[in-house]
Amino acid sequence: MVQHNSNKSITLKHLAIGGKRYIGIKFYPDKVLQALVKDLSQIGWSNKFQMTVLPNNKENLHLICEKFKGVAWINTQHFFINRPVNHGNEKLSVDAYRKRPPKNGWRYCPEEYYQKLEIRKYSIHTARSYIGMFEKYINHFSKSQDLMSLDELDIKKYIQHLVQQSKSDSYINQALNAIKFYYEVVKGMPNRFYDVERPIKSETLPKILSQQQVLNIIENTTNLKHRCIVSLLYSSGIRRGELVALKLGDIISDRMLIRVNRGKGRKDRYTLLSETILNDLRIYFRQYRPQKYLFECKPGIQYSASSVGKVVAKAAEKARILERVTPHMLRHSFATHLLENGTDLRQIQTLLGHNSLKTTELYTHVAIKGMNTIKNPLDLKKH
Asked: Start and end of every Core-binding (CB) domain (predicted)?
């Protein structure tokens, strides 16, 4: 934000008109501001956006800052990128996507899209999602259409197309993220599509298991390795992606902690290590002798997340649990059972690695502590 010494203000926005980049200047009618705006070179008016515009370049941006300095507050929150580069991530390479053979009638991501993903060190999981989603978007339109000529209306129609295909809210949000990444990050036009609305997030409650059901699943694993996988998911509350990334040194037995490196959001944290699982892990280590990762499919190669899902699902099926059980249900159960046993909500937030306490508070809606003391009106006896 550029400071000012009056109550006047202007807002800068990124606009694309006819495939060209423009700076939009939005302000309430004011004689002083109108006079200053008219004094700018290359100034024009957009009927579509209903605001003053001029070509988007460094010279014009500097000119605006100098022209309104000390006269008006220049609101740039829609103009500059505030999100930092992910410094902590491992180096990302999307060469596998670059080297794909040409596919008849299919338009691949532009090279600058790949470059920006690598420079900002996005995780490979996010990169795959963004590339796939963005290519579906650009192939929805004519192959010859210039990407910079697409506007808010085009994106809204595309989102409407996804809704008509019964795509989930999560899918639509991922598609929007991939599209916005191109225009806002790759092309350097943050908040260009501020008018495109996201689906309202549905408030669904997490699915949880009882403690007895979890124990039954653990008892129905087929071998010690699978037993350790299921037990660790439940007793620590880690995600399956975090589980397969665990290395031998991440089990800190003298402090009874597990170190989770670069979990969701690329953040490190600690969570609980169970005494029961520690004993099993020691036996597991002597039998399986993992070299680098705690769980490996081959020496030095980490176990796959999909294999973890199959282990959990198969054990739950053998335990005769009717609904399909996922690794994330064990995480939900971990948090809910801690809450029911009196653990402070903020401590649970730390163990799970949630950024917001609001996310953790969701478990208060499924915890049953205290509910079993409420007498159902149907069961009340008449006096």
From this structure: 104-187
Q: How many angstroms separate the Cα of 313 from the Cα of each of 52, 108, 214?
A: 58, 36, 12
- Out of 264, 266, 314, 318, the active site residue is 264
**Does residue 116 have an active-site annotation?**
no
Taking the CA atoms of 117, 118, 123 and 124 in sequence, report the sign of the dihedral they define: positive
Is 363 a catalytic site residue? yes
Ranges of beta strands (E only) in the chain are 9-17, 20-26, 44-46, 51-55, 73-75, 251-252, 257-260, 269-272, 296-298, 301-302
> Pick the catalytic residue: 14, 116, 192, 239?
239
Whole-angstrom distance, CA of residue 143 vs CA of residue 218:
52
Give me the domains of the chain, ranges plus CATH numbers: 9-75 (3.30.780), 95-186 (1.10.150.130), 211-365 (1.10.443.10)
Coil, helix or strand for 239?
coil
The CA distance from 177 to 159, in Å, is: 12
Q: Quick one: tokens of 199?
A: 């689906």
Low-confidence ranges of the chain (pLDDT < 50): 1-5, 87
* 50: CB partners within 8 A, 6+ apart: none
CA distances from 27 to 2, 154, 181, 353, 362 (A): 15, 26, 27, 42, 41
Give the pLDDT score at 108.
Answer: 93
- State pTM to two decimals: 0.61
Per residue, what are the HEC states of 117-164?
HHHCCCCHHHHHHHHHHHHHHHCCCCCCCCHHHCCHHHHHHHHHHHHH
pLDDT digits (tens, 9 = 90+) for 275-318: 999 999 999 999 999 999 999 999 999 999 999 999 999 999 99
Q: Is 269 a catalytic residue?
A: no
- pLDDT the model gives residue 4: 47
Residue 296 has φ and ψ, to the nearest 5°, of: -130, 145
Known catalytic residue: 13?
no
- Strands (E) located in 172-272: 251-252, 257-260, 269-272
Distance CA 232, CA 242 (A): 11
